[in-house]
Amino acid sequence: MAGKLRFWLSDAPADAEVLERAIACARLSGNHRAQMRASHWLAVTFISLTIPADAATIRAEQLLQEVGKDLWAEADLLKPLSILYAYTGRFADARAALARTRSVFTTFGATLALAESAIPAGVVELAIGDPAAAEQCLRQGYDALRAMGEQRFVANIANLLAEALYAQGRFEEAQQMTEVVLAASVEPDARAQCQAMQAMLLAPRSQFAAARRLLDQAQALLEPISCRSDDAWMLIARAEVSRLAGTPAVAAADLGEALRIWPPACFSTAPSRPTSVRCWRWPTPGSTRSGVRSLRRCALAAPRTRPSPARTSSPPCTRTRNASASSCTP
């Protein structure tokens, strides 16, 4: 619990240090359940990239090796690991990990966990650069959660759906998703992310002053709880508004600040391996902007809302190694 609280308070690297101690204590005492819960949350902290993604992936894979025959723990740990795979350019492994997760949850009849797995699936597809596939995954989870009356994850999925729709140029639908988020009782970081998206939706209509006011309001929401991912998200949103306002130098400066928060080395320590810092191409005509897609992914990938009582996961990527369909393929 202490590690999770530190994570929710954006207290890094203390959150990971506490969770590492919890894993060691649980292992010594033979408490497998506690070890798996701490392992899952340690892997979740990694997607904020407080350590380089390559190193985080290696550690998460080590955690995966310790799940034994605990299939639920395996599926749960594969969710954050899939995002780390996407960050380091291991897209087939990312999709294979999620396919395994979905298979396990389906076998257990765990409809809530299956629906919630749409969040990492959407994150992975957006990191890969396939917003249509991300939308498909997220829609499945969104519809399933709403049908259950579940509220905790709907706002997070709606935020991601807004981004997937924005990336496809479907601005009106993206706006509708932001309204879903704001109508829900969400925490400040989710609301701020939503307002940043609304600002980006105002910019194509040349409402630049209103867009900047929204960004200022969103930043004010984050002041008491600001973390690296939130700061990067706001900088990228500001850069997009500035680019559309015809001030590329300001946009470049904001992206430069975002890269100082998450330099490319955060995503891959191996120069020969492709990183997930790539050119993000927005759907407006004639655009030549350079964004940082993975920074956006980090900002949304680790929501501070209290997740459902899940468990943890293991390395069956080897069993489904060649999976290449989208992350939400059953």
Structural notes for this entry:
Helix content is 66%, strand content 0%. The protein is an all-alpha fold. It has a domain of 92 residues. Helix 5 runs parallel beside helix 8 and helix 11 packs antiparallel against helix 12. The protein is globular. About 17% of the residues have low confidence.
Provide key terms for this protein.
330 residues, globular
Structural class: mainly alpha
Bin the helical content: 55-70%
Percentage beta strand: under 5%
Radius of gyration: 19 Å
The largest pleated sheet is described as:
none
Distance between the termini: 33 Å
How many H/I helices? 16
Low-confidence stretches: 269-324
Q: Got a strand count? A: 0
Shape: globular
Written as H for each helix and E for each strand, in order along the chain, the element string is HHHHHHHHHHHHHHHH
Oligomer: single chain
Average pLDDT score: 81
Offer a quick outline of the entry.
The protein has 330 residues and is mainly α. The protein is 66% helix and 0% strand.
Topology overview:
Elements: H1 2-8, H2 14-29, H3 32-46, H4 53-64, H5 71-87, H6 91-108, H7 111-116, H8 118-128, H9 131-148, H10 154-167, H11 171-183, H12 188-202, H13 208-222, H14 228-244, H15 248-261, H16 293-301
Helix pairs in contact: 1-2, 2-3, 3-4, 3-5, 4-5, 5-6, 5-8, 6-8, 8-9, 8-10, 8-16, 9-10, 10-11, 10-12, 11-12, 12-13, 12-14, 13-14, 14-15, 14-16
